[in-house]
Amino acid sequence: MEKIKISTAQFENRSGDKDFNLSKIEGLAEKAALDGSHAIAFHECSVTGYSFARRLSKDEMLELAEIIPDGPSVSRLTRIAAKNNIVVLAGLFEKDSENKLYKTYVCIDKNGLVAKHRKLHPFINPNLTPGDSYCIFDISGWKCGILICYDNNIIENVRATTLLGAEIIFMPHVTMCTPSTRPGAGFVDPKLWENREEDPTPVRLEFDGMKGRKWLMKWLPSRAYDNGIYVVFSNPIGMDDDQLKNGCSMIIDPFGDIIAECRTLGDDYVSAILTPEKLEQAGGSRYIKARRPELYKNIIGKDHTPEQKVIWINNVTDENKI
Questions:
Q1: pLDDT tens-digit profile of 105-118?
Q2: Which end of the chain is more exposed for a tag (fewer CB within 10 A), N or C?
Q3: What's the angle, vertex CA 129, arms to CA 123 and CA 131, rounded to 5?
Q4: Can you give the pTM of this predicted structure?
Q5: Using one digit for the tens of pLDDT, what is the confidence trace for 122-141?
Q6: Helix, strand, or coil (residue 288)
Q7: How far, in Å, CA of 233 to CA of 96, rounded?
Q8: d(CA 30, CA 37)
Q9: In this structure, are strands 87-95 and 39-41 parallel, antiparallel, or unpaired?
Protein backbone atom coordinates (compact mmCIF):
# COMPACT_ATOMS: atom_id res chain seq x y z
CA MET A 1 0.00 0.00 0.00
CA GLU A 2 1.40 3.37 -1.07
CA LYS A 3 1.00 6.74 0.63
CA ILE A 4 -2.01 8.77 -0.47
CA LYS A 5 -2.83 12.48 -0.49
CA ILE A 6 -6.29 13.38 0.81
CA SER A 7 -8.03 16.76 1.00
CA THR A 8 -10.89 17.95 3.16
CA ALA A 9 -12.90 21.08 2.39
CA GLN A 10 -15.19 23.66 3.92
CA PHE A 11 -17.53 26.04 2.16
CA GLU A 12 -20.65 28.10 2.76
CA ASN A 13 -23.54 26.25 1.10
CA ARG A 14 -26.91 27.58 0.01
CA SER A 15 -30.08 25.83 1.16
CA GLY A 16 -31.63 23.79 -1.65
CA ASP A 17 -29.40 25.34 -4.34
CA LYS A 18 -27.73 22.26 -5.78
CA ASP A 19 -26.25 24.07 -8.78
CA PHE A 20 -24.51 26.61 -6.55
CA ASN A 21 -23.25 23.98 -4.11
CA LEU A 22 -22.00 21.69 -6.88
CA SER A 23 -20.17 24.61 -8.45
CA LYS A 24 -18.40 25.18 -5.13
CA ILE A 25 -17.56 21.48 -4.94
CA GLU A 26 -16.24 21.57 -8.51
CA GLY A 27 -14.00 24.58 -7.87
CA LEU A 28 -12.46 23.16 -4.71
CA ALA A 29 -12.06 19.71 -6.28
CA GLU A 30 -10.22 21.24 -9.22
CA LYS A 31 -7.81 23.06 -6.90
CA ALA A 32 -7.18 19.95 -4.81
CA ALA A 33 -6.54 17.89 -7.93
CA LEU A 34 -4.00 20.41 -9.19
CA ASP A 35 -2.38 20.11 -5.76
CA GLY A 36 -1.97 16.37 -6.32
CA SER A 37 -4.76 15.01 -4.10
CA HIS A 38 -6.24 11.60 -4.81
CA ALA A 39 -9.54 12.46 -3.09
CA ILE A 40 -11.41 15.40 -1.57
CA ALA A 41 -14.18 15.21 1.05
CA PHE A 42 -17.03 17.66 1.64
CA HIS A 43 -19.50 18.04 4.50
CA GLU A 44 -22.78 16.32 5.26
CA CYS A 45 -25.50 17.35 2.77
CA SER A 46 -22.96 19.53 0.98
CA VAL A 47 -24.95 19.18 -2.27
CA THR A 48 -28.33 20.15 -0.83
CA GLY A 49 -27.76 22.15 2.33
CA TYR A 50 -28.82 20.79 5.69
CA SER A 51 -30.44 22.78 8.49
CA PHE A 52 -33.31 24.13 6.36
CA ALA A 53 -34.58 20.54 5.93
CA ARG A 54 -35.99 20.60 9.49
CA ARG A 55 -38.91 22.66 8.15
CA LEU A 56 -39.68 20.58 5.05
CA SER A 57 -42.70 18.32 4.60
CA LYS A 58 -42.30 14.80 3.24
CA ASP A 59 -43.38 15.97 -0.21
CA GLU A 60 -40.83 18.76 -0.12
CA MET A 61 -38.15 16.31 1.02
CA LEU A 62 -39.02 13.96 -1.84
CA GLU A 63 -38.72 16.85 -4.27
CA LEU A 64 -35.27 17.69 -2.89
CA ALA A 65 -34.01 14.11 -2.65
CA GLU A 66 -32.61 12.07 -5.53
CA ILE A 67 -32.34 8.47 -6.62
CA ILE A 68 -28.76 7.22 -6.21
CA PRO A 69 -26.85 6.61 -8.43
CA ASP A 70 -29.20 7.66 -11.25
CA GLY A 71 -29.93 11.21 -10.08
CA PRO A 72 -28.48 14.39 -11.58
CA SER A 73 -26.18 15.23 -8.67
CA VAL A 74 -24.28 11.94 -8.83
CA SER A 75 -23.98 12.45 -12.59
CA ARG A 76 -22.54 15.93 -12.01
CA LEU A 77 -20.15 14.64 -9.34
CA THR A 78 -19.00 11.92 -11.74
CA ARG A 79 -18.20 14.54 -14.38
CA ILE A 80 -16.28 16.57 -11.78
CA ALA A 81 -14.30 13.48 -10.72
CA ALA A 82 -13.55 12.49 -14.32
CA LYS A 83 -12.56 15.99 -15.44
CA ASN A 84 -10.12 16.42 -12.55
CA ASN A 85 -9.06 12.78 -12.03
CA ILE A 86 -9.95 12.97 -8.36
CA VAL A 87 -12.28 11.02 -6.07
CA VAL A 88 -15.06 13.22 -4.66
CA LEU A 89 -17.04 12.54 -1.47
CA ALA A 90 -20.17 14.59 -0.82
CA GLY A 91 -23.58 14.39 0.84
CA LEU A 92 -27.22 14.75 -0.20
CA PHE A 93 -30.71 13.50 0.58
CA GLU A 94 -31.63 10.21 -1.09
CA LYS A 95 -34.99 8.65 -1.98
CA ASP A 96 -35.59 5.07 -3.06
CA SER A 97 -38.23 3.42 -5.26
CA GLU A 98 -40.60 3.21 -2.29
CA ASN A 99 -40.18 6.92 -1.45
CA LYS A 100 -38.19 6.21 1.67
CA LEU A 101 -35.84 9.07 2.50
CA TYR A 102 -32.24 8.83 3.68
CA LYS A 103 -29.37 11.11 4.64
CA THR A 104 -26.66 9.78 2.33
CA TYR A 105 -22.97 10.36 1.64
CA VAL A 106 -21.42 9.15 -1.60
CA CYS A 107 -17.94 8.39 -2.88
CA ILE A 108 -17.60 9.10 -6.61
CA ASP A 109 -14.73 8.48 -9.01
CA LYS A 110 -14.40 9.01 -12.76
CA ASN A 111 -16.52 5.92 -13.43
CA GLY A 112 -19.37 6.88 -11.08
CA LEU A 113 -20.56 5.63 -7.70
CA VAL A 114 -17.93 3.79 -5.65
CA ALA A 115 -19.83 3.62 -2.36
CA LYS A 116 -22.65 5.21 -0.39
CA HIS A 117 -23.48 5.33 3.30
CA ARG A 118 -26.91 6.06 4.72
CA LYS A 119 -26.72 7.87 8.04
CA LEU A 120 -27.43 5.46 10.89
CA HIS A 121 -28.76 8.15 13.25
CA PRO A 122 -30.60 10.82 11.21
CA PHE A 123 -32.71 13.43 12.94
CA ILE A 124 -32.95 16.72 11.03
CA ASN A 125 -36.32 15.70 9.53
CA PRO A 126 -38.79 13.16 10.97
CA ASN A 127 -39.35 11.56 7.55
CA LEU A 128 -35.80 10.24 7.29
CA THR A 129 -35.17 6.50 7.54
CA PRO A 130 -32.06 5.30 9.44
CA GLY A 131 -29.46 3.36 7.52
CA ASP A 132 -28.87 -0.24 8.55
CA SER A 133 -25.33 -1.11 7.49
CA TYR A 134 -21.69 -0.03 7.53
CA CYS A 135 -19.76 0.88 4.45
CA ILE A 136 -16.27 -0.26 3.41
CA PHE A 137 -14.67 0.57 0.07
CA ASP A 138 -11.32 1.15 -1.60
CA ILE A 139 -9.49 4.31 -2.65
CA SER A 140 -6.06 3.73 -4.23
CA GLY A 141 -5.49 0.56 -2.20
CA TRP A 142 -6.65 2.05 1.13
CA LYS A 143 -9.68 0.61 2.91
CA CYS A 144 -12.11 3.41 3.74
CA GLY A 145 -15.34 3.85 5.67
CA ILE A 146 -17.95 6.57 6.11
CA LEU A 147 -19.82 7.64 9.25
CA ILE A 148 -22.01 10.74 9.10
CA CYS A 149 -22.00 13.28 11.94
CA TYR A 150 -24.00 11.79 14.88
CA ASP A 151 -22.96 8.28 13.78
CA ASN A 152 -19.52 9.15 15.18
CA ASN A 153 -20.84 10.08 18.61
CA ILE A 154 -21.85 6.45 19.13
CA ILE A 155 -18.38 5.02 19.61
CA GLU A 156 -19.37 1.47 18.68
CA ASN A 157 -19.91 2.63 15.10
CA VAL A 158 -16.32 3.78 14.76
CA ARG A 159 -14.92 0.59 16.27
CA ALA A 160 -17.17 -1.59 14.09
CA THR A 161 -16.10 0.25 10.92
CA THR A 162 -12.47 -0.18 11.94
CA LEU A 163 -12.92 -3.88 12.63
CA LEU A 164 -14.40 -4.25 9.16
CA GLY A 165 -11.07 -3.07 7.81
CA ALA A 166 -11.26 0.71 7.53
CA GLU A 167 -7.92 2.52 7.64
CA ILE A 168 -9.46 5.89 6.78
CA ILE A 169 -12.88 6.95 8.03
CA PHE A 170 -14.51 9.93 6.37
CA MET A 171 -16.59 11.82 8.94
CA PRO A 172 -18.73 14.48 7.22
CA HIS A 173 -20.56 16.77 9.64
CA VAL A 174 -22.77 19.81 10.03
CA THR A 175 -22.00 20.47 13.66
CA MET A 176 -20.96 22.82 16.47
CA CYS A 177 -22.39 26.22 17.41
CA THR A 178 -25.77 24.82 18.52
CA PRO A 179 -27.53 24.65 21.91
CA SER A 180 -26.66 21.83 24.28
CA THR A 181 -26.68 20.93 27.96
CA ARG A 182 -22.88 20.94 27.89
CA PRO A 183 -21.19 24.02 29.44
CA GLY A 184 -20.47 26.86 27.05
CA ALA A 185 -22.57 25.60 24.15
CA GLY A 186 -24.94 27.70 22.04
CA PHE A 187 -25.53 29.51 18.77
CA VAL A 188 -23.04 32.04 17.42
CA ASP A 189 -24.46 35.44 16.42
CA PRO A 190 -24.61 35.67 12.59
CA LYS A 191 -23.69 39.37 12.83
CA LEU A 192 -20.17 38.31 13.82
CA TRP A 193 -19.89 36.42 10.53
CA GLU A 194 -21.21 39.35 8.54
CA ASN A 195 -18.50 41.53 10.10
CA ARG A 196 -15.67 38.98 9.81
CA GLU A 197 -13.62 40.92 7.26
CA GLU A 198 -13.60 44.14 9.27
CA ASP A 199 -13.23 42.44 12.66
CA PRO A 200 -12.37 38.72 12.55
CA THR A 201 -11.38 38.32 16.20
CA PRO A 202 -14.87 38.04 17.80
CA VAL A 203 -16.08 35.35 15.42
CA ARG A 204 -12.79 33.45 15.67
CA LEU A 205 -13.02 33.46 19.48
CA GLU A 206 -16.54 32.01 19.26
CA PHE A 207 -15.55 29.44 16.63
CA ASP A 208 -12.54 28.24 18.61
CA GLY A 209 -14.21 28.29 22.02
CA MET A 210 -16.60 25.93 23.80
CA LYS A 211 -19.35 26.51 21.24
CA GLY A 212 -17.12 25.14 18.54
CA ARG A 213 -13.65 23.70 18.20
CA LYS A 214 -12.94 23.15 21.91
CA TRP A 215 -15.94 20.82 22.07
CA LEU A 216 -14.79 18.96 18.96
CA MET A 217 -11.36 18.44 20.50
CA LYS A 218 -12.94 16.67 23.48
CA TRP A 219 -13.77 13.62 21.37
CA LEU A 220 -12.78 13.66 17.70
CA PRO A 221 -9.02 12.97 18.08
CA SER A 222 -9.83 10.06 20.39
CA ARG A 223 -11.77 8.32 17.62
CA ALA A 224 -8.59 8.26 15.55
CA TYR A 225 -6.27 7.44 18.47
CA ASP A 226 -8.32 4.62 20.03
CA ASN A 227 -8.81 2.87 16.70
CA GLY A 228 -5.47 3.62 15.07
CA ILE A 229 -7.04 5.11 11.95
CA TYR A 230 -6.95 8.27 9.88
CA VAL A 231 -9.99 10.53 10.33
CA VAL A 232 -11.09 12.95 7.59
CA PHE A 233 -13.48 15.45 9.19
CA SER A 234 -15.44 17.86 6.98
CA ASN A 235 -17.74 20.65 8.16
CA PRO A 236 -19.33 23.73 6.54
CA ILE A 237 -18.36 27.28 7.36
CA GLY A 238 -20.66 30.28 7.41
CA MET A 239 -24.43 30.28 7.33
CA ASP A 240 -26.28 27.00 6.91
CA ASP A 241 -29.83 28.31 6.72
CA ASP A 242 -30.11 30.45 9.89
CA GLN A 243 -27.33 28.67 11.80
CA LEU A 244 -23.69 29.72 11.72
CA LYS A 245 -21.13 26.91 11.40
CA ASN A 246 -17.42 27.16 12.14
CA GLY A 247 -15.71 24.93 9.58
CA CYS A 248 -12.32 23.72 10.88
CA SER A 249 -12.34 20.76 8.51
CA MET A 250 -9.33 18.65 9.43
CA ILE A 251 -7.39 15.44 8.96
CA ILE A 252 -6.24 13.51 12.04
CA ASP A 253 -3.65 10.76 11.98
CA PRO A 254 -3.69 7.44 13.90
CA PHE A 255 -1.79 9.08 16.78
CA GLY A 256 -4.69 11.49 17.26
CA ASP A 257 -2.66 14.41 15.92
CA ILE A 258 -4.13 17.02 13.59
CA ILE A 259 -1.98 17.00 10.45
CA ALA A 260 -4.02 19.49 8.39
CA GLU A 261 -6.83 21.92 9.26
CA CYS A 262 -8.78 24.69 7.54
CA ARG A 263 -8.24 27.88 9.52
CA THR A 264 -9.55 30.54 7.14
CA LEU A 265 -12.90 32.30 7.60
CA GLY A 266 -14.20 31.22 4.21
CA ASP A 267 -14.23 28.54 1.55
CA ASP A 268 -11.05 26.48 1.76
CA TYR A 269 -9.46 23.06 1.62
CA VAL A 270 -6.38 21.48 3.16
CA SER A 271 -4.46 18.35 2.23
CA ALA A 272 -2.31 15.79 4.00
CA ILE A 273 -0.21 12.82 2.97
CA LEU A 274 -1.34 9.62 4.66
CA THR A 275 1.35 7.00 5.19
CA PRO A 276 0.58 3.32 5.89
CA GLU A 277 3.40 3.04 8.46
CA LYS A 278 1.45 5.09 11.01
CA LEU A 279 -1.36 2.54 10.99
CA GLU A 280 0.96 -0.01 12.62
CA GLN A 281 3.07 2.41 14.67
CA ALA A 282 0.14 4.01 16.50
CA GLY A 283 -1.11 2.59 19.78
CA GLY A 284 -4.57 1.91 18.39
CA SER A 285 -3.18 -0.94 16.31
CA ARG A 286 -1.99 -2.66 19.50
CA TYR A 287 -5.26 -1.96 21.31
CA ILE A 288 -7.24 -3.64 18.53
CA LYS A 289 -5.05 -6.74 18.74
CA ALA A 290 -5.23 -6.84 22.55
CA ARG A 291 -9.03 -6.97 22.69
CA ARG A 292 -10.71 -9.76 24.69
CA PRO A 293 -14.23 -9.86 23.25
CA GLU A 294 -15.17 -12.88 25.36
CA LEU A 295 -15.30 -10.50 28.33
CA TYR A 296 -17.75 -8.03 26.88
CA LYS A 297 -19.38 -9.32 23.67
CA ASN A 298 -22.59 -10.12 25.55
CA ILE A 299 -22.51 -6.73 27.27
CA ILE A 300 -21.89 -4.61 24.18
CA GLY A 301 -24.20 -6.79 22.08
CA LYS A 302 -26.99 -6.92 24.64
CA ASP A 303 -30.42 -6.19 23.17
CA HIS A 304 -31.90 -2.82 23.99
CA THR A 305 -34.34 -0.33 22.53
CA PRO A 306 -32.46 2.64 21.08
CA GLU A 307 -33.69 6.03 22.23
CA GLN A 308 -33.82 8.65 19.53
CA LYS A 309 -36.31 11.18 20.76
CA VAL A 310 -36.98 14.07 18.41
CA ILE A 311 -38.72 17.01 20.03
CA TRP A 312 -39.23 19.98 17.75
CA ILE A 313 -38.78 22.96 20.04
CA ASN A 314 -37.62 26.26 18.54
CA ASN A 315 -36.50 24.33 15.46
CA VAL A 316 -33.82 22.47 17.41
CA THR A 317 -33.96 18.74 18.09
CA ASP A 318 -32.74 16.92 21.15
CA GLU A 319 -30.10 15.23 19.01
CA ASN A 320 -28.82 18.62 17.88
CA LYS A 321 -27.95 19.22 21.49
CA ILE A 322 -24.72 17.26 21.61
A1: 999 999 999 999 99
A2: N
A3: 100
A4: 0.95
A5: 989 999 999 999 999 999 99
A6: helix
A7: 27
A8: 10
A9: parallel
